[in-house]
Design brief:
With about 140 residues, the protein is an alpha+beta fold. It has a domain of about 100 residues. Helices cover about 30% and strands about 30% of the residues. The protein has a six-stranded mixed sheet with strand order 3-5-6-1-2-4. A hairpin with a 5-residue loop joins strand 1 and strand 2. The termini are far apart.
């Protein structure tokens, strides 16, 4: 019974450590801004606009590459979000520099399986080559 509990605990620790956080997906872009802007200006702008504002410094691709037959895809929700692409204006203080505020949707990550059909050719080539060498090296 202790082995079962230990394996469950281990599973949850890995599940939590590999979980990603939500981000702001700008439509027409394949980049997700994942760091909420927790500065005083970001918090004030977020309160004024009524939706979360994300920092332009930390990004992730909207669709990651396949690693260990899984990939992360961000799926946009219905909640609005914003990113000041060029930072804040030094003159106005609260406005984004050069009107660089772009709006997007809050996106959450989902782990999906990579299509196994993409690797079928590798399976066919490797088994055919093994069969070829096995027949060729067979002693009569």
């Amino acid at each position: 019974m202790w082995r079962f509990r230990f394996s469950c605990l281990l599973f949850f620790v890995f599940a939590i450590s590999y979980s990603s956080k939500a981000g702001c997906l700008i439509s027409g872009s394949q980049i997700v801004y994942t760091q909420p802007d927790n500065s005083s200006l970001g918090a004030l702008l977020s309160n004024l606009l009524g939706f979360p504002v994300y920092s332009n410094s930390v990004t992730a691709p909207a669709v990651s590459s396949c690693i260990n037959l899984t990939q992360t895809k961000y799926q946009a929700g219905s909640t609005n979000c914003g990113v000041c692409l060029q930072g804040y204006s030094q003159v106005l203080g609260l406005a984004c520099a050069n009107n660089s505020l772009v709006q997007g949707k809050v996106a959450t990550p989902a782990m999906v399986a990579c299509p196994i059909d993409d690797y079928a050719w590798l399976l066919v080539v490797s088994s055919a080559s093994m069969l070829f060498f096995k027949i060729r090296n067979r002693k009569d």
